[in-house]
Design brief:
This protein is about 55% helix and about 5% strand. It contains seven helices and three strands; from the N terminus they run H-H-E-H-E-H-E-H-H-H. A three-stranded parallel β-sheet has the order 1-2-3, with helices on both faces.
Length: about 140
């Protein structure tokens, strides 16, 4: 878990009570450079109640990290077509079930990670954005 917030202490206490030792779950402070964090992550869980197009989600996917996220804002479009697991906001049981599903299936983690990375490369990479922008300019200039 990365970041510092008002729930940090209670989450650390809960993790300890659940037996999630540091070799299974690590609490990190805020990071300017997330590359190493994503390379070490087994999965990402985004429990937002509202979002636009979350960069953290795209960054995780670009690193091949499988994602569980809530069905808000632009997230369903990003994770559609089997690129991640979606749950309803505030559905703790649904989120837990999706996380357990990923923990129990390395094949699913690998498949979602690959699909997510391919999607970000195809749609959200600098090359893809450059192509989309050039195409838009060409359409405007031809009118």
């Amino acid at each position: 878990m990365v970041g510092i917030g008002p729930m940090r202490r209670s989450l650390e206490t809960l993790a300890s009570e659940l037996g999630l030792q540091s070799d299974r779950m690590e609490f990190l402070n805020e990071r300017d450079e997330m590359d190493l964090v994503y390379r070490e992550a087994d999965l990402m869980v985004m429990t937002s109640e509202w979002e636009g197009t979350p960069n953290a989600l795209l960054e995780a996917m670009a690193h091949g990290v499988p994602v569980v996220a809530t069905c808000v804002g632009g997230i369903p479009e990003i994770l559609g077509c089997g690129r991640g697991l979606l749950t309803e906001p505030r559905d703790e049981r649904g989120i837990a079930a999706a996380v357990i599903q990923l923990i129990e299936s390395s094949d699913l983690r690998q498949d979602l990670g690959r699909r997510g990375r391919d999607y970000v490369t195809r749609v959200h990479s600098l090359d893809a954005l450059q192509s989309q922008l050039l195409e838009t300019y060409q359409k405007v200039l031809c009118q």
